[in-house]
Description:
The structure holds two protein chains of two kinds.
Chain A: H1 12-39, H2 45-53, H3 55-83, H4 87-114
Chain B: E1 5-14, E2 24-33, H1 40-50, E3 69-72, E4 75-78, E5 91-94, E6 101-103, E7 106-107, H2 110-118, H3 138-142, H4 161-165, H5 172-183, H6 191-196, H7 212-216, H8 223-237
Parallel strand pairs in B: 1-5
Antiparallel strand pairs in B: 1-2, 3-4, 3-5, 6-7
Amino acid sequence: MVRSATSLTGNGVRDWLWQRVSAVILAVYTLFILGFIWFTPQLDYVAWFQLFQGIGVKLFTILAALSLLTHAWVGMWTILTDYVKPAYLRLILEVLVIIALFLYFIVAIAIVWSV
Amino acid sequence: MSEAMRTVKFKIYRFNPEVDIKPTMKDYELTIPDKQDMMLLEAILRIKAMDDSLAFRRSCREGVCGSDGMNINGRNGLACVTLLSALKQPIELRPLPGLPVIRDLVVDMKVFFEQYAKVKPYLINDEPPPAKERLQSPAERKKLDGLYECILCACCSTSCPSFWWNPEKFIGPAGLLQAYRFIADSRDTAKVERLEALTDPFSVFRCRGVMNCVDVCPKGLNPTRAIGHIRSELLAEGN
């Protein structure tokens, strides 16, 4: 058993499962947006505005942003623990990734809720 | 009339940490009868007869002991079951990648065997032993096919990028194949404990499915499939 303080859940099975569940949510969200683009006859500001006015789409978008956050953290943590061996440097990079992902998430909520 | 001969060219990694500053590739030429083929190990033994400073491991000469694993033209394999005629010249021989070199083609396999030991590669059964033997049905025994044949040559683990980056944390394909060999064994009673020991983010889950292990295994085994089975068992156990 290898102990790990900084992985998403500290447990390999749960990290693995979260990464896959979030991937499925992101895939469904991508198909939803592509479907909207494909099936909307006049794709303009009004069409996008109307789409994102629905509470369902807002929640789905936030869920997708949350999935991206989860998915990216598991992936970035894996990459950093593979390639960055000095612990202090890895910790700095991990904190930077967490801050960036958190900011993306806050901005995503702000954008979606401003519609 | 004398027999026609041909020359086989080699480039062999040479490094003696006690005297060399850095490794070098040394050229060798071996002259053999034109129509004769041989295993790579035989050729290396003939080179050793010319230059006895060359260090490498070998024992059984028939793909059973797993001693002569090395990197042959960029791909890990056993010299004793690799035909000379199947190799492009010059034949480049290097030690197994990712492990410290002791000398020339001999690597320090300590970390490899430490990972192997972690999976407790022996039958654990806390029930009283029967008078004769612990029986299995043919179906239960069949589950061990493709698992028990591993000879621990380390060709798989040393071709795995995840093992290169985290040799102290990721058990590696060879160790995980053996882990599943005992998880799948109907006579073993420590399945839950074995699975619990593998739940961390490194031991099993550092496998990214590169499948180099499957590509190079000289015994044709499939560690990636065994790792997949371990993941399924971990999910089923709810760890």
